[in-house]
Every structure is written in C-alpha cells, then in structure tokens.
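#help-structures
NK: newbie question, is this the right format to request a structure? protein is DUF2116 family Zn-ribbon domain-containing protein
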Amino acid sequence: MKKCLECGNVIMGRVDKKFCSDYCRNAYHNRLNKDRNNLIRNVNNRLRKNYRILESFPLKEGKTRTTRTRLLDKGFDFDQITSIYTTKKGTVYYFVYDLGYLPLDNDYYMIVKRE
C-alpha cells in the first residue's frame, strides 16, 4: 500500500502514482518550490515592469529618445536588465529582453528595439 506524499492517504490506481489527487500533487510542489519561486517571481515582475515602461515609448524606425527623469517617474529600475550588448566601437546598450537603452549625454537615453 502506497501513501500520498502530501497527505498520507492510501493511493488507489497506478503503481507509480505518488499523490492521491491533483490537489495534493500541486500543494506538494508549491510547498517544495515556495522559497525559490518568490525570488524568481519578484525578479520577473521587475523585468516585466521595466519592459512595459520601455514599450510605452513610441519608437520611430526602431528607436526614440527620453530622459532619465521620465523613466524614473514611470518606475523604471536601472538595476534590472537581462543583457548587455557592446558594439565594436565600445558603445554599451542595456537590454530588457528585446528592448534596450543607451545612456546619452545630459541624462538622455536612446531606447531601441533589437531586430
């Protein structure tokens, strides 16, 4: 007689079953991954927010300009990016998925879309 890994009830059915119901299976895995998921969920939420902010600026020919103040007013977090791209000339772009920004002079930023 096998017992459910979550609630301890007797399992009926297939020989390789580990849980008595979908509820117990989900509860077991949610409890198992709770700590790791909070960190990942928080980082992904910040990345999604940054992406939505960059996406809110209308692009003309794949780029546009804005100020640091406008980005910060919308809640942009400059610490949350997915990648950095350096051109052959040494220009550094910071990307959140396929949307990125390039710091310019006087607190201006060029927002670009990677093709």
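mod (FA): yep, format's fine, and the tokens are attached above. The beta strands are 63-67, 83-86, 92-96, 99-103, 108-113.
NK: thank you!
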